[in-house]
Specification:
By secondary structure, the chain is of the alpha/beta class. 31% of the residues lie in helices and 17% in strands. It folds into 2 domains: 8-287, Rossmann fold (3-Layer(aba) Sandwich); 301-368. The chain has helices at 45-54, 108-112, 127-141, 160-169, 174-188, 206-212, 239-244, 277-280, 301-314, 317-323, 334-351, 355-360; strands spanning 14-18, 34-38, 60-64, 84-88, 92-95, 99-102, 116-118, 153-157, 193-199, 215-218, 249-254, 259-264, 284-287. β11 (249-254) and β12 form a beta hairpin. The longest helix is centred in the C-terminal third of the chain and has 18 residues, at 334-351. The structure holds zinc ion.
């Protein structure tokens, strides 16, 4: 398996120094761990997650980001990486000078074939489609049951709270949304994936997240100060440090209690505020209508397409109805099948192609075949 090491001289410089009275915390880039990066907004959390990512020798997976497409920073000329895959929604076309793939085409070996697998909000036509896609992509990681020591992937969570909000938006309760996220992060280490997650402020989830993190990295935290159970750190690091820390500074606590102060250069490729990366990278995006999914009452676009495929083969509503369960759908009545065929043919006759088939199979011209109905 390819290992995509960034040469040391191309990595963004990162330095640690000990804190008086405490053993020094050190990074261990050879075993999968979780880094929780805590601090206020605009304090350099994302930049630090990028620096962490650079130090992992396998794929960087950068899917969870902010609204401004910050994840695309890896594509910039100043980035040390060129093997990049851009993943987009199935009903979206992305034109770029990098490899692109619709989410349905991504499997584990695809992920392992790139140094960075990146997506961003603009690559999906809606939040729901995006979150379905991310679930699918992360599910792919669960297949990574074998990996060599040190061959770690790195998964960036740039707006961790957004993940919880989005799950809640999909109707999951707050408690379950948090539990799912924690479970997911905890699982990733079994698949050789390290995690770098940001946490905006002291929220309901931060204690649980801290408990599963091997490293807690503090950025500037403002007047709120450290959570009660972490205030012992003030014995070693002056509270003023946390209030006035610069963008490129950190205080790091390791699970064994070791501590260090850290400093890093701002990655050259890090997205500055106000930069439109889509424009800079000359990436164009177009969305077509998303496929409708099937329900008990309603035949969705993909099911419609499969019905048409079966009909092409068997030329009988009854046989299609019988074969539908083999394709993973419930059996539909003969008249429902007949209705789909009629609608398809009507569409092809009137418009030259069938929207439902188009949505189910974006990018193919399969949809403009009118079928003989006998
Ligand atoms: Zn059709």
């Amino acid at each position: 398996m390819t290992q995509y090491k960034i040469p040391d001289e191309e990595k963004t410089p990162l330095y640690l120094k000990p804190v008086n009275g405490r053993l020094m915390a050190r990074f261990d880039f050879k075993r999968p761990v979780t880094y929780l990066v805590m601090g206020n907004r605009n304090t350099g959390k994302s930049a630090f997650i990028e620096v962490l990512a650079e130090n992992h020798d396998n794929t960087i997976i950068d899917l969870y980001g902010s609204k401004d497409n910050e994840n695309l920073c890896w594509c910039r000329k100043t980035s040390p990486i060129d093997d990049i895959l851009l993943v987009h929604g199935d009903n979206t076309t992305v034109t770029a000078s990098f490899d692109t793939a619709p989410i349905s085409d991504v499997n584990l070996s695809t992920l392992e074939g790139y140094k960075a697998v990146v997506t961003c909000n603009s690559f999906f036509s809606s939040d729901n489609i995006k979150f379905d896609a991310l679930e699918k992509l992360t599910g792919v990681l669960y297949e990574r049951t074998q990996w060599n020591k040190g061959h770690l992937m790195f998964m960036a969570f740039r707006e961790t709270m957004d993940l919880i909000y989005s799950k809640m938006h999909q109707g999951v309760g707050e408690k379950d949304a948090k539990a799912q996220l924690l479970y997911f992060m905890r699982q990733l280490r079994h698949f050789g994936v390290s995690v770098g997650a940001d946490m905006l402020r002291w929220t309901g989830i931060d204690k649980e997240l801290r408990d599963l993190s091997e490293y807690i990295v503090f950025k500037k935290i403002g007047y709120k100060g450290l959570p009660r159970d972490l205030r012992f750190i003030y014995k070693y690091v002056n509270p003023i440090t946390f209030r006035y820390m610069k963008h490129n500074q950190i205080v790091m606590l390791q699970e064994n209690g070791n501590m260090s102060l850290g400093k890093f250069d701002l990655p050259k490729y890090h997205k500055e505020e106000g930069v439109d990366l889509l424009r800079e990278l000359d990436i164009t995006i177009s969305h077509s209508a998303a496929p409708e999914s099937s329900t008990q009452q309603k035949i969705g676009d993909m099911e419609h397409f499969i019905i048409m495929e079966l009909y092409k083969k068997h030329q009988s509503y009854r046989v299609v109805s019988e074969h539908l369960p083999e394709a993973g759908y419930e059996q539909r009545s003969i008249s429902s099948i007949g209705y789909q065929v009629t609608q398809h043919n009507k569409a092809v006759k009137q418009k030259g192609s069938c929207d439902r088939c188009n949505r189910a199979t974006p990018g193919t011209d399969i949809a403009n075949i009118e079928l003989y109905t006998g």
